[in-house]
Amino acid sequence: MSSNVTLRERLIVTIASLLDGARHVAVGASSPIPAAAAMLLRAQKEALNAPPVRLSILGSVKHNLFTNGSAELFDCAGQGRIDAFFLGGGQIDGQGNINLVGVGEYPNTSVRWPGSFGSAYLYFTVPKVILFREEHSPRVFVDKVDFISAPGTSEPNVYRKGGPYALLTGLGLFMFEPENARFRLVHMHPGHTLAEIQAATGFRFEIDPQLSVTPAPDEATLALLRGRVLDELGETYPDFAQQLTKEITAHAE
After folding, report:
1. Torsion, Cα of 84, 60, 167, 76 (10° steps)
2. What are the C-alpha distances in Å from 252 to residues 6, 7, 192, 247, 249?
3. φ and ψ of 165, to 5 deg
4. Predicted structure pTM score
5. Is residue 156 scored above 70 in pLDDT?
């Protein structure tokens, strides 16, 4: 395992490991880290001559077979042809509810965000939804969201194939336990402590008995990420690819 790895590289590799087993991964707009993770998974499978992974990255020309944008994404999800997707939120609570509308009592929100769009639909139809936010603070991870854009769980008589699978942040990795609607902390990123994560999280969570430091990638994975994946990422996210390259160079010095 390599210790010479940046936080963002660790996030990308962690997401790729969560995606293992997915045949079709969809990535929304403005999601460079999840996109890089999906590209890494595809590269890993090709290196092993394993069944291919299909990517649908909105906003990409090269890595997206859709010609009608999100409409086709929703059709595929409803037909059960997307295995994994990513959601974030201005607020996320301990039951996996996400808020993309704003802060305060709706409709008189003091802070307004872009809106829910198709988040609730995709939360119900995609089997593996990974929640991702780099910022880990009490203002993001709250006890109860001010507005539910998409619910993390449903009543037993409500049919849904999808829901939260994991939550990855700049501090650690949580897995979601649907049976008790709670998150369980399984990994802490290097340099962070359990007490720090608890203080930065506005909701209670379970602690895995095998809680450990987030694994670093091996040299082969790191080579794929810093080579092929960075090159592919530059087509859709040139600014992010340049930033990541600079971070890698600075980290190595």
Report:
1. -30
2. 9, 13, 21, 9, 5
3. -105, -45
4. 0.95
5. yes
CB atoms within 10 A of CB 247: 14
Tokens of 230: 């960075």
Tokens standing for residue 165? 């699978």
Whole-number average pLDDT of the chain: 94
By the 8 A CB rule, do 227 and 39 touch? Answer: no
Q: Which two tokens stand for residue 46?
A: 């090709």
What would the pLDDT profile of 18-56 be if each residue is shown by its tens digit? Answer: 999 999 999 988 899 999 999 999 999 999 999 999 999
> What are the structure tokens assigned to 57, written together?
């990255």
Evaluate whether 74 touches 123 at the Cβ level (below 8 Å): no
Place of tokens 């340049």: 242
Once rounded to an integer, what is the mean pLDDT over residues 205-213? 98
- Neighbour count for residue 139 (Cβ, 10 Å): 11
CA dist 112 → 28, 36, 44, 109, 207 (Å): 20, 29, 40, 6, 33
Count the Cβ atoms, other than its own, within 10 Å of residue 81.
15
- Angstrom distance (rounded) from CA 83 to CA 41: 13
- The amino acid that residue 216 corresponds to is A
Closest C-alpha among 195, 196, 175 to residue 185? 175
